[in-house]
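ok so for the tutorial part 2 we go from a plain amino acid sequence to predicted structure tokens. step 1 is just haveing the sequence, like this:
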Amino acid sequence: MSTSASHLATLAKESETSFILALFVDLTGKPCAKLVPVEAVEELAANGVGFAGYAAGAMGQEPKDPDIMAIPDPASFTPIPFVKEGLALVHCDPHVEGVPWKYAPRVILRRMIDQAAEQGLEVFMGAEIEYFLVGKDERGALVTADPSDSAPRPCYDARGVTRMFDHLAAVSTAMNSLGWENYANDHEDGNGQFEQNFAYADVLTTADRVITARYLISMLAEQRGMTATYMPKPFSDRTGSGMHLHLSLWKDDEPLFPSAEDERGLGLAPVAYEFIAGILEHASALQAVVAPTVNSYKRTGAVSTTSGSSWAPRMPTYGGNDRTHLVRVPDGNRVEMRGGDGSANPYLAAAASIGAGLDGIARRLDPGEPGGDNGADRPSLPLTLLHAIDALDADPVVAGALDCVGPDVAAYFARLKREEFFTWHSQVSAWEVEHYLTAF
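step 2 — the prediction. this is what the tokens look like for a chain of 440 residues:
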């Protein structure tokens, strides 16, 4: 038995696991898995488990192509008995014919981590996951799962949190049992919207945990007859759901971003400003990756909502503890990217952000002074997914991050997203019927 097989078998035995979900995500973030009995754990660890890549989703394959073999990473083994007794999950790195698959998001992030490591850098990340709990009424219309959650300003409402206590407590307990250090659970700005936070970790671990958390939240919500959605903007009059990423760089086990001698007043070292400048320089192209759906731009394009603010950035600016900026600096330890939303693939979002930030460091870019006017010389964020994809095509750094394992991934991603945009654009909406039916 190989060391990897022995380790995975030991983990399964110690956690009293009966079945393992061998899981990976496609480029859109769809979780794909096979349920593997623990009796086959040695085969799983040694050779992986096979998938028809074209059937799985956006994995860069045609029906004629060879199987994708999902090779488990034992370090990501996660018992999830709160979903089903005896069930565990392990994140996998897809390979094709023995080679890491260039279209696999986790493989892409691994390569960007290696590129940072070549410069002696380690990337840490925290992620804020926002979501809505919804259901459907007798007419099939989308409604808030809690019918009493109708206040005009529901954010942090103690009553809303209490009414959803069973769900929130179940998710929190699950996170803490896994050692994620859940530290807060709150009602967000939209009716039916929640956020549950956990501690930061190395960037790959956090990306894995985002995928795991989405799965757990969805499954635990279903147990209570609700649907958890990470759709960026499920309701036109409410705040959208973001996925904010908190990034920091370390070297030799020491954080690089903090500095007590910052004349700009944010507590940052020069390398942190260069990293921020890279994010701002490539902001338009990054939006194609961190806000990758048609619906994403209903969130970033919103001027206001029933609660009074959209909380989504509209310009590529940065500043201190100010949530109106694309890049917020809560303290000197990290920078917060606020452009991403609930539809983002965390592996790709992290990989592209690392690429942009490292480019800022390599070119010694200057983001300018913090504040609302620091983006005046930069284009505003894309208005639609189509604009964002055009920006991605024109940006060799962000496209290069997607292509870091092999060529043509960025072009494939862009083609898929253009098709998504034009498929949506070809549909006749209720708005069009209302405005044009008798207008002429």
